[in-house]
Amino acid sequence: MTAPGSTVGNSAASRDKAFVLHPYTNLHAHETQGPMIIERGEGIHVFDDGGKDYIEGMASLWCVSLGWGEERLVQAATKQMRQLSTYHIFGHKSHEPGIDLAEKLIGLAPVPMSKVFFANSGSEANDTAIKLIWYYNNALGRPEKKKILSRQRAYHGVTVATASLTGLPNNHRDFDLPIARIIHGDCPHHYRNGLEGESEEAFATRLAEQLEALILAEGPDTIAAMFAEPIMGAGGVVVPPATYFAKIQAVLKKYDILLVADEVICGFGRTGNFWGSQTVGMQPDILTCAKQLSSGYLPISAVMVSDAIYRACVDESRKIGTFGHGYTYSAHPVAAAVALETLNIYEERDIVGHVRSVAPAFQSRLKALADHPLVGEARGIGLIGALELVADKATRTPFDPPGRAGALVNGLAQDNGLIVRAMGDSIALCPPLVISEAEIHQTFDRLTKALDAAVPVLRG
Ligand code: PMP
């Protein structure tokens, strides 16, 4: 609480403005606008401090798969807190929650994986993957094979290295990024980057050819790995064109380049399969995941590595000693226990089966909005999707200035009791996986109202 005599008001909003530096927020606008305070959650709903009810159409930040108030996760956390509230796994120490979770993840992996490294966030998982790749190539005596391929509009995190991988200007500008040895290739967005009349397959072929040209220009012996989200999330929900990953992977294999699947959003049922890799046909050497791993209830992430990578790291460690990487909270026992219980719930309630049963309703309501006067493209798969708002549907001309239409619809959706996320002028939806078909219809009814209300403002 605010000290007596302070000029800061006592409300949460004024104390927020006084003390909190917000992530991913327009800091200047926040000084006048202030925060929206969320007080509690229940199922797929959250409630603000005025008691207003919102459908959380983004599952917080793409993570609250089981919705709010899942008592079994509360119980799992409480039980573990009492037994061993915290402990590390450095220097040969270990504990059962970490061991159990690693074993479970290896059993669930989409391709044979050997070991699991734990971290606390998606960014840390991807940062770890970069370090493992460099360590691996040093172990193999290829110190020059270190460059990492990413893609325009990719999102892989915000640490110095992972923000560099991220292919969005806002994450680079004024942060002096990207760092060296990170290369951005083409974004596989057919609607924006396909040529006129080009089929998805032809587009995928061209992207693979462009990737090969990029690799040859850089020198194949200098390129270690490529990172890719199965479905790009924060870059605007981009579903790759048919045959894309088969063609991309053939090129990577040819030049001995590893593939990292960033499953931070797609993992755990989001796309209608347990892993996004299965949906798009990726066979990664490294897989990173977070978010829905614990239904977002506690911070935890994981990096799974193939046996070849693990063996090379062991060899290097035999030569140089300790593998010098790890977080205080790697495999935090409470987070691990909650993640394990989350995975048990996914299995018991057949969460993938549920996603498959409700996804047709979600996708058909989403795709029907392609006919709306403001929508240029409606895209998605499983329980993830986006609407790209355009000034002119026929010419696909974006709104000017960019972002205004997205922000407007975002605000109108909120007025109508729906939280979505505007990424520029694309409106994303990624609801809790437990959403029912009736709730899907409510979600789209609210979104349609918001879009309709935006028409006179944007076209008027
Ligand atoms: N990778 C992907 C695909 C993501 O969507 C995100 C976060 N939205 C991250 C990595 C980074 O995760 P975190 O914010 O937990 O660091």
From TrEMBL:
One of its GO terms (molecular function) is pyridoxal phosphate binding. Keywords: Aminotransferase, Pyridoxal phosphate, Transferase. Coiled coil: none annotated. PROSITE patterns: AA_TRANSFER_CLASS_3. It comes from the Bacteria. Its cofactor is pyridoxal 5'-phosphate. GO terms for biological process: biotin biosynthetic process; gamma-aminobutyric acid metabolic process. InterPro entries: Aminotrans_3, Aminotrans_3_PPA_site, PyrdxlP-dep_Trfase, PyrdxlP-dep_Trfase_major, PyrdxlP-dep_Trfase_small. Belongs to the class-III pyridoxal-phosphate-dependent aminotransferase family. This is Aspartate aminotransferase family protein. It comes from Azospirillum palustre.
